[in-house]
Every structure is written in C-alpha cells, then in structure tokens.
Write a structure and sequence with these properties.
single chain; 2 domains; 6-stranded parallel beta sheet; 9 helices; about 10% strand
Length: about 220
C-alpha cells in the first residue's frame, strides 16, 4: 500500500456513527404525512445524493413540498443531532492524525448535505484535515457512479491508483471501485445485514479504525 497518497472517506456510517439519525428522520418525516417507512427504502435510496434522495421522496410520496423544501426540512431535523449527538467512529481521530503525519491527503466524498457535513466536522475539530470536501450534489450522479470519487482525486491531483476509499455501503464501494480505486469497507451496525456483500465487493474490511493495522498498512 506504499503507493497510496490520498485517502477518501464517505461520511455517514464510515467516519461518523450517524445512520441512526436518518432512520429516525425517515420515520418522523414520512409519519407526518401519513406514510410508514417502506421496508426496502434504504436499498432504494442507497448512495443517492441529498438532492436525488429528496427527488425520490417527492416522486414516490404525495408530499406538499418542493424538493428544496424537503432538503431544508431534513437539514433542520438533523442539525442538532449532528452538532451534539453524532460521534466519530472508534479510532477515527487517531487514524486521521496518523495520515496527517504521513502527509497523506484526505478528503470527504458524501451523499449528505454540505451544511451537515461542515457542522459535524467542526464539532469534532477535524475539518482542517481535509483537502477536499465534496458532496454528491456537486457532481453529475450520486453513488454507485464514480463521479464523486473522481472529483476528489482531481482535487488531490492524484491518479485513482494512488487513492484509497473508506465506505460503509455497497453503492459506495461500487463507486470507489468504478473510479479505479482500492476500497476498504467499514463495519456499521446499520448495514450489518450487508456485511458479507461488503466483504465480497471491497478490497479490505475493518471493524473499526483502531484495528486497521490488522488489515492495511499505509
């Protein structure tokens, strides 16, 4: 792995433990309009950008809101939780410090909104580690398309072969692989039923960042 010069993290479920937030928001938001959360909703919207997800909700549920209003509502519902209740993944801060010492560039490639990304990074004091923070709304297509990872590599001025991706869902793993990068899957309780699929799709798999030396040496 000595050729790795850039590391790109997904955010939710990968760098921070936040997937529970969206499970709760889906229930509250759809319940307000008389809908139960469909059993397959998670897989249907997996990897979509914040805007693509809002468009999906607008087209699949009879909501009296515009796409922009849906996004604004979600940002408002999630803001306090991202500011005070969303923790970093175990060992993540120490791993970021290690990468910084190695002078490896770091980036974020997320389907979340920039508003929430900036809040949670600032809350944990880690925003300064990242040379590129890109949301899927800023590229042509969300995951599993490779666009977002390709953009971060361009921001780094690195080739895909020089980048390593950390992801927690199959769509994200596929996006990193489609971009020509090595991908490490990260365990997350909200995708535990997908563990075998994640292991099969990814190049590496870790339970947390404290145990990363057992799998990857940078």
């Amino acid at each position: 792995m000595g050729q790795i010069r850039g590391v790109i993290f997904d955010l939710d479920g990968t760098l921070v433990d936040s997937m529970w937030v969206w499970d709760a928001i889906d229930q509250e938001f759809l319940g307000k309009y008389g809908y139960a959360v469909p059993e397959n909703l998670g897989r249907e919207i997996e990897g979509m950008s914040f805007t693509e997800t809002a468009e999906y909700f607008k087209s699949h549920f009879d909501l009296p809101l515009t796409v922009d209003e849906i996004k604004a509502c979600w940002n408002e519902m999630a803001y306090d939780k991202y500011c005070s209740q969303v923790p970093l993944k175990k060992g993540a801060k120490a791993f970021l410090e290690y990468l910084a010492r190695k002078e490896i560039r770091m980036g974020i490639a997320t389907s979340n909104s920039r508003h929430l990304v900036e809040q949670v990074l600032r809350r944990h004091g880690i925003e300064g580690y990242f040379a590129s923070i890109t949301t899927a709304c800023e590229v042509k297509a969300g995951k599993p398309a490779p666009d977002i990872y390709q953009k971060v590599a361009r921001d780094f001025n690195l080739s895909p072969e020089e980048c390593l991706v950390f992801e927690d869902i199959p769509a994200g793993i596929l996006a990193g692989k489609a971009a020509g990068m090595k991908v490490c899957a990260v365990e997350d309780q909200w995708s535990v039923e997908l563990k075998e699929e994640k292991i099969r799709l990814a190049d590496y798999y870790i339970e947390d960042y404290e145990r990363i030396d057992e799998t990857i040496r940078l």
